[in-house]
Amino acid sequence: MHFKEAKGILSPQNGMNLYRGCTHGCIYCDSRSKCYHIEHDFEDVEVKSNAPELLEAALRKKRKKCMIGTGAMCDPYFPGERKLLHTRRCVELIEKYGFGLAVQTKSTLCLRDLDLFEQIQRRAKCVVQITLTTFDEDLCRILEPHVSTTRERFEALCTLKEHGIPTVVWFSPLLPFLNDTEENLRGILSYCFEAGVKGILCFGIGVTMREGNREYFYQKLEEHFPGLRERYERCYGLRYELSSSRNTALMRIFHDECEKRGVMHTPEQVFRYLHDLEAGDEAEQLSLFS
Q1: 8 Å CB contact between 241 and 30
Q2: 153-187: per-residue pLDDT in tens?
Q3: Are residues 186 and 250 in contact, defined by beta-carbon separation less than 8 angstroms?
Q4: Are strands 46-48 and 19-20 parallel, antiparallel or unpaired?
Q5: Other CB atoms within 10 Å distance of the CB of residue 224
Q6: Which of 45, 61, 150, 284 fits a 20 to 30 Å CA distance from 138?
Q7: Measured between alpha carbons, how far is 178 from 181 in angstroms, rounded to an integer?
Q8: Beta bridge partners of residue 126, listed in sequence order
């Protein structure tokens, strides 16, 4: 890790990234893309050392309470957070000033801050978003090698439910020829339904590739799945969107199964729920039926 003072912390949409870079090692990670201008090794995580001070100043200035988001680019609960407590200090400030929180992660380390999540949920609204992509644990360890496994993340979702914390699952990305199967889809859905998630974000069965993350992805394909890189290059070339040939059939199953169980399943529904500070059933019903 290395430390750097930031000039600002909240985006116009009230999102924040406390770190730049990650050590999870997910082979498909879009945050490696050159367009984000990370000027250091991706695994050499940059810590925004003054983030808590910047956040407190920003929250004090806000006239209206809102949801504060974190984790869209870099995981706020990467392993270094265990000692740094950087994310925890920022969550404490969000609770102190009565704002809502929408945190996104792949790590069960988020459970460390369960006490703060409960306090925020009582005063405002706290939603924990956890990414699940791969039901098969062995495949998960290849695609997402240095992070909590899918089973461990599912158990974290169940713990959050037991403590009254609403959850959302990001079911993305799905990699053609690897986890774009009905078995994988139904396995992940079974976890989501058992854990009582409020919504599932799925943007289609496929993945996006840009300069920077494409090269790393292909390197890992060659390492773990000999011959698969060539298949990708034949099918997709240098496209940005790599849609699975099974997209239509699998997305039909996805929407039908979620609809049966009253789980939000369109991006519009889920993002409205994540950005809406109203707590409790009112916001959820607006998202489900609007």
Answers
A1: no
A2: 999 999 999 999 999 999 999 999 999 999 999 99
A3: no
A4: antiparallel
A5: 14
A6: 45
A7: 8
A8: 101
Would you call 74 exposed, middle or buried from its count of C-beta atoms within 10 A (0-12, 13-18, 19+)?
A: buried
> Helices 281-289 and 267-275: crossing angle, nearest 10°?
160
Q: How far apart are alpha carbons 151 and 170 in whole angstroms?
A: 15
Who contacts 250 (Cβ-Cβ below 8 Å, separation ≥6)? 174, 180, 182, 185, 205, 244
Q: How far apart are CA 189 and CA 176, in angstroms?
A: 18
Say if CB 134 and CB 147 are below 8 A apart: no
* 3-state SS, residue 130: strand
In contact, 55 and 90? CB cutoff 8 Å: yes
- Cβ partners under 8 Å of residue 254, min gap 6: 171, 185, 189, 200, 202, 265
Q: State the residue for tokens 């199967």.
A: 181
Answer whether 208's CB lies under 8 Å from 33's CB: no
7's CB contacts (< 8 A; 6+ apart) are: none
Q: Tell me if 231 sits within 8 A of 200, measured CB to CB.
A: no
Residues 103-130, mean pLDDT to the nearest whole number: 98
